[in-house]
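pinging the channel bc i need a second pair of eyes. not urgent but kinda urgent?? the chain im working w is below, pasted from the shared doc
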Amino acid sequence: MRVTPAFFFLIIFLAFLAPASLAQNGSWQMPLFQGEAFRPEFSARDLKVMTRVLQLSPEAQKSLQDLYDGYAAQLNDEINRLKAQCYDEVDRAELMNNDEMLEPVRERVKAFKARAEQIKQQFLTDLKSLLTREQEANWPTLERELRRIRRIPRGQLCGEAVDVVGIAEEAVEGRDMPAPLAEVLLRYRTEIDHALTTRDTYLEGEGKDYYELVKKDAARATEVWKEALRLRLTVRDTNERYARLVAAELPEDRRSGFEQRVFASSYPMLHRPTRLDQYIEDALRLPELSPEQKQQIEAVRRQRKEKTEAWARRAAAGWRKFQEEEMPESLAQAIGRPQRKERAIMFNGSWLSEDHPLVKARTERVELERTLKAQVDAALTREQREAIPARLNDMAKFEVWTNHGI
């Protein structure tokens, strides 16, 4: 699973907390008024989907916007009312430094979530009342579209969270969608909806007891983990298969951009800037840089882009293998595997053998970056190289993809 920024900060904080300094003062936060219930469930993109799928007239679109504005305003008013009701209880709990005193607030929040669902359903009921019989017949299609938009981002594996429809629509923006492409996307919408629904139904059903099973029944927990992984891989593979089919139907001048966007969305960790990117830009901004030097450095920048894109394709295979085989540490220990070094658990496969594709790819990246940096340095004088700032932060930064569960 992907680790949230807040969780990663907590890991970093604990990792650097020396045993001798456990008496340090600090603070921590407990979320109260957060989650889907505390914001309008439908985005501007959702409204566009409603307009397109339901084929709303300009007048109906205005009515839709008015209904949505009323829905959002009512939700916001009731959120403010809830916070006002909880003010004294939260204030007292914080002053007493006792989170157990927040239990009445938690009960209020639980009740509010049911109320937020009622407000949303009323909005949908009012929307249906605007529709003609022909438009209402498209309602199941709308529900399917919204399910995909909401559920696709829950993907944890590389390629599992890619919305092929969204990227394809961006690729043909400004043009009429070819009929063969529309047919492929229709099949994708149906198949990915089934894959996402099957995955989430399992995770919310059989999977909800996974963490308890790890403690009580490791064999059953292993079965649940394997099935959850299989369902996630089904979503990923469906995305990848239809991305290839979509690419084949796109106009030739849009195909490459579509494929690059799908790949970048599947493997964002392989496309993040490195220190060499900043180093090259700093070198190009040096004063008194000769035209010949600038030409040499710009050539390195172009070469780096080409070589990095080729490297990313090879590195993707390592990430796939890592994610497909990496068992959650808690489950691995429950079935008897020796615990890894504590700090190694934090980082992405730092414990893997040197012949693992992911480690090989990382080694290749280090060598590539050093080679290209050396080419930049060769184009500069010693004084110019020394003028480039190191730009090191106070803390080292690592990518985190540690499998904590399903």
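so The first helix runs from residue 5 to 15. and Confidence is low (pLDDT under 50) at residues 1-22. — does that match what u expected or am i reading it wrong
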